[in-house]
Amino acid sequence: MHMPIGDNLEINLLAANQHKADHNREDFDSWRLLSLNVMSSPGAGKTALLERSLPQLSRTLRMAVLEGDMTTQLDAQRLEAVGIPVVPITTGRACHLDAAMVQGGLRLLEQRLDPSTLDLLWIENVGNLVCPAEFAVGEHLGVALLSVTEGEDKPLKYPVMFRRADVVIITKTDLLPHLPVDVQTIRDNILSVNPDAVIFELSASSGEGFSAWHHWLEETLSRRRVAAESHIRSLC
Asked: Most buried pick, 5, 104, 131, 212, via CB within 10 A?
């Protein structure tokens, strides 16, 4: 049985991408940092999330950002104003970051700092609920954002994105009083496609919900450090 040429090409592209993603993961592991691939539709609040999180987390954590965008560096400029190292990655016509683009961004980052001094690397993907879900970049955790303005059905209509995500953040919750949207239905739909998803509800405008999100990140980093140290001791 022969698959269509298009299917073969897609499989080859994904396999080649996965090979590069594996190399990126090896780099992340060797640097002992935690890498997050932040994904969402356009306007769901990825950059706003980072603008609120980076200043607070930078009190205790060392971080950098790889900022993906199709044609501009506007989001990168917004994050540079926060004072965190940012490497912009312009994808041109590509609607997602792939592992090779991230690999190139890492080489540029290495020209500015030693990645092994970082605790956390944020990879802000291009706004799209389809393509970023198909192309791994080597990240340790996938973080998907879903704004309440997008409605309740997006996890059901774009299940690959929400099934792949380790964390789903429901954003713009300050707008709930003005929308015919039930946040519990959103949560139920997320869990119907991904029962293991960790879910947060927050508002970048008011700051509500960020304490729980930051606490979870810090706890996740702490657990990774303990596991890494235990692994090193077992090799001695």
From this structure: 131
The DSSP call for residue 70 is S
Averages of pLDDT over each 10 residues, the chain, 236 residues: 45 87 97 97 97 96 95 90 94 92 97 97 96 96 98 97 98 97 98 98 97 98 83 63
Scan for tokens 């607070």, then name that residue. 56
Strands 63-69 and 86-90: parallel
Cα separation of 196 and 167, whole Å?
9
How far is it between the farthest Cα atoms of the chain? Answer: 59
Residue with the two structure tokens 């008011």: 206
Burial class (CB in 10 A: 0-12, 13-18, 19+), 40: buried
Rounded to two decimals, what is the model's pTM? 0.92
Q: Which of 198, 165, 225, 217 is nearest to 54 (CA)?
A: 217
Q: Which residues lie below 8 Å from residue 62, measured CB to CB, with a gap of 6+?
A: 117, 118, 119, 120
Query: How many angstroms separate the CA atoms of 173 and 201, rounded?
Result: 7
73: which residues sit within 8 A by CB, 6+ positions away?
67, 88, 90
